[in-house]
Amino acid sequence: MVVSAFRDRAGLGIVERRDLQLALSLKAYSVACRVNPGGSLLFGIGMVTLFLSYPRRIVPKPVLWLPTLLIGACILLVLGPGWPDNLNNAPDFIAIIMVALLLFIAAQVAANRRDPAARAMLGWLGVSVAAGAGGFVLTSILPTLIGLAPVIEQSTAFLFFLIIYAGIALAVTRYRLFDLANWSYGILFYGLGVALLLGLDAALIYGLSLGRAPAFGIALAAICMVYLPLRDKVWVLLKRNREIPAEELYRRVTRIAHARDPEDKQRLLRKFWSDIFNPLRIKDQPASTTITALQDDGRILTLASIGNLPALSLELAGQGSRLFSSRDLARADAILSLLDASLSQHETYLQAVSAERLRINRDMHDNIGVLLLSALHTGLRERKDLLIRQTLADLRELISNPDQTDWDLRDLLADLRAEIITHFEAAHITVTWQADEITKGRISHRLAHALRAFLREGTSNILRHSGATEAKVRIALESDGLQLTLRDNGSGFDSSVASLGNGFRNLRNRFTQLQGAFSYSTGDKGTTLTAFLPLFSTQKEAAAE
Question: Which of 82, 91, 162, 369 is the most buried (most CB within 10 A)?
Fold first, then answer.
């Protein structure tokens, strides 16, 4: 009779298995029945006291003893002298404790609304307690209170408390605290969906007397068509990130990359991050910061320096209302990659513009300059007109068609021979032109400009500075290019001054970029310019592009 009374009144998981009842003595069975409700109520004391004091104490210190006193009185009532007559009250007490827990969790959320870290922990703790304790109450305690059979055996329902233990462990150790809010919201939404599914299923079965299979099918369809879309909308509303459209994002990244003034660039960068995450503060970081990472449990998002942009740290997103999450970290990494690519493209553009300006400067100096100088010194009107027309033609080519036209090498050398000899003869300088026979071959515009610049710049220097009476041009065809030599019998020049001039510097740069070579020697018996042009090494020319 005593065993029957225990089982009928308690419905306790530890005594629901018949084999366990037979294996235990009456005394051991009685102790087990006392431990079960007593342990549940003692757990209630711990959880209620925890949420009254953590993460912030929301009641005066003396009140913290109140759960111990009240729930302790309940334990004495259930397990005291009237045992087991008051055992039926245990489910009522557990249900009341569950409601109190939910109220204290809500109070903690309100008290810590301005502390993102505490709110993140509360989200995880609250959801784990609600899911664990709520699952136990809904499946085991509540059905008993309304006179129904438990949904699952109480011994199995105690597994719900593992959720609570896991939640407490993760929150106390602050494991990936910055993601706890997102996880807790997800679990809350899914848990609520399961609860609605079970509740609607029960209502259809007991309220409309539908069969279990039709009731479950209708409940599942209702959840899928109503709750899940509504959940997605609520989730979007809860997301606090202000999303910037992709077009606007790209436009602003490009504007930052193209800003010339460093102060303007920094101002645009800070405004950009402020609009994305709305942080409480933005601070400069050392230039050595090369890794984007979350710090201080997600309170700080450190942004690596890229290009000429400074490293920054953002503190507390949403004006201090939330922590940064791993989703924020991934988004920041993606934006920084976009910024880096935009900066690199702009830098490449600036380098290309600078290179083009330098090319025009060199061609103007090496080609156009010598033609104008020759036109200035000639006394023949027809010759002067010819040189000016040639200058205009070269100028048009220089500006409008700098990178397209290939040249026939034999024709190019023939034109240059006529041009150079004419310049020397006009200055009454005897010139000797020696060139190996070239039957065929085309060269690119870069090689043609280098060859023309060597001969024109050398001729210009002889005409202006050397005082020479004789000049000799030698063009030798070798296995992989041309060996160029230009020699005069003038007075030479100071090599330290010439090394600073644009002409020789331009020539050296031209041939170096083409994987060739340029050098000169000078003395009181004249000056010799030598150069090697790798005409037939397409790999070298491609590397110079």
Answer: 91
